[in-house]
Write a structure and sequence with these properties.
Elements: H1 2-16, H2 36-46, E1 49-51, H3 60-81, H4 89-98, H5 103-130, H6 139-161, H7 166-177, H8 185-193, H9 201-232, E2 246-248, H10 252-273, H11 304-312, H12 316-328, H13 333-336, H14 348-369, H15 374-420
Antiparallel strand pairs: 1-2
Helix pairs in contact: 3-5, 3-9, 3-10, 4-5, 5-10, 6-7, 6-9, 11-12, 11-14, 11-15, 14-15
């Protein structure tokens, strides 16, 4: 008995060196791991207060982090064998696919991982729109997420150029040429190209450098995003921020996210092992040829909605502005929303417009890959108009209407109570 007490006393004294005072949350009181590092991990991963009613829709955030890790690891492995040279880039990719042991698996994991990343991100964004995750006090959290989305899009574009196939070459030519709408744009484009055309030796090296560096910028921005999240806490389906129903993240949501991860990996493995090219354009298996333009020039599928907006505007500068504004308009919604209710489930009027937005966004996917014909251009203009109308007009207007209805109901009930008295 005395030996056991001595052992426990010695253990307590040994651990006291690592202790630090932490906030006295109700489920953090009886913890031994209060050291700086262990306490930080415990506070933000194990005993992090989480609303009890979160659904699987909240698992898309953690899945986005998993996608980022997969992309970084597979990208580093690919960079060992990839050659950022116009004469050898395409052949180096084929060398990875054919000669490097398991190179095909690494390359398909990275290529399809980009598509999985965007699927998760789009689901994460639309979940935030549905449950009002942009409302006070989470405005900065939402804006940091939009910045992350922009960084991921930049990384995806620069990565799409690296195989140096037909779509890579012409995609780089078209996208970089958009800079010419700016004052002094031609000088900027020549600086990006490192010459007078995209077909210059420095061009691919610069895209490769940017593509390699951006994921680490995204990692840093992700830490900021998580810090902002943990400062205000997760939103919930019922829109409550009281914290009275919070539970520790571990083991409840750890198990839930683990199940979501297993489902995600099952879908991911299906694409990588069974349908590795279904999300990629076949023309990119043709070496880049500056003398031959593809019959239909389209970007990767995850850029199609914004490409549809671009080509629906007949004016070059107007189309480019509309395409860029389609992403930047997401910054407005935390500051233009005028209502008080978070969850769209309790907002029947807004719910109609929300599902119209989802349908509109899916229609833009289809329009982006459709032939450039009058009917698709007209349809794209209507779809782009509704997209902008939703964020600039519908969101604040519906909030005002809901406020009027709620306050009118309250006034009527007060009058009825006075008459009863």
């Amino acid at each position: 008995m005395m030996s056991n007490l001595f052992s426990l006393n010695f253990l307590a004294k040994s651990l006291s060196f690592f202790r630090v005072k932490l906030p006295n949350y109700s489920f953090n009181r009886n913890r031994w791991n209060k050291g700086y590092l262990l306490g930080f991990l415990n506070l933000h991963l194990v005993d992090y207060p989480t609303p009890v009613c979160l659904s699987y829709a909240w698992s898309f955030g953690s899945l986005a982090g998993i996608c980022l890790v997969i992309q970084i690891l597979s990208g580093v492995l690919l960079s060992i064998h990839y050659v950022a040279d116009m004469q050898h880039a395409f052949q180096s990719v084929q060398h990875i696919m054919r000669d490097v042991p398991n190179g095909w698996l690494i390359r398909y994991t990275h290529a399809n991982g980009a598509s999985m990343f965007f699927i998760v991100l789009y689901c994460h964004i639309f979940r935030g729109l549905y449950y009002g995750s942009y409302m006070k006090p989470r405005q900065m959290l939402w804006c940091s997420g939009v910045i992350l989305f922009l960084l991921v899009m930049g990384t995806a574009f620069t990565g799409y150029v690296l195989p140096w196939g037909q779509m890579s070459f012409w995609g780089a030519t078209v996208i970089t040429s958009m800079v010419t709408v700016l004052p002094g744009g031609q000088t900027i484009v020549e600086w990006i190209w490192g010459g007078y055309t995209v077909n210059n030796p420095p061009t691919l090296k610069r895209f490769y450098s940017v593509h390699f560096a951006l994921p680490f910028v995204i990692s840093g921005m992700t830490i900021i995003h998580l810090a902002l999240l943990h400062r205000v806490g997760s939103s919930s389906p019922i829109g409550s921020d009281t914290g009275v129903d919070d539970i520790p993240f571990y083991p409840y949501y750890f198990a839930k996210d683990l199940f979501a991860l297993n489902c995600f990996l099952l879908v991911f493995a299906t694409f990588v092992l069974l349908f590795p090219d279904v999300l990629n354009h076949p023309d990119n298996y043709i070496p880049a040829d500056p003398m031959e333009t593809p019959k239909q020039l389209v970007p990767e599928w995850y850029f199609l909605p914004f490409y549809a907006i671009l080509r629906s505007i007949p004016h070059k500068a107007g189309g480019i502005s509309a395409m860029g504004g389609a992403i930047l308009v997401l910054f407005l919604i935390p500051f233009t929303y005028t209502g008080y209710v978070r969850n769209t489930t309790y907002r029947p009027l807004f719910k109609i417009f929300y599902w119209f937005l989802v349908s509109d966004f899916l229609a833009l996917f289809y329009i982006g890959q459709a032939p450039i014909e009058d009917q698709y251009i007209t349809l794209g203009q209507y779809a782009a108009a509704y997209y902008y109308l939703f964020f600039i007009v519908i969101v604040p207007l519906v909030g005002l209407i809901e406020n009027k209805l709620v306050f009118y109901r309250v006034k009527e009930e007060k009058k009825a109570n006075k008459n009863i008295v």
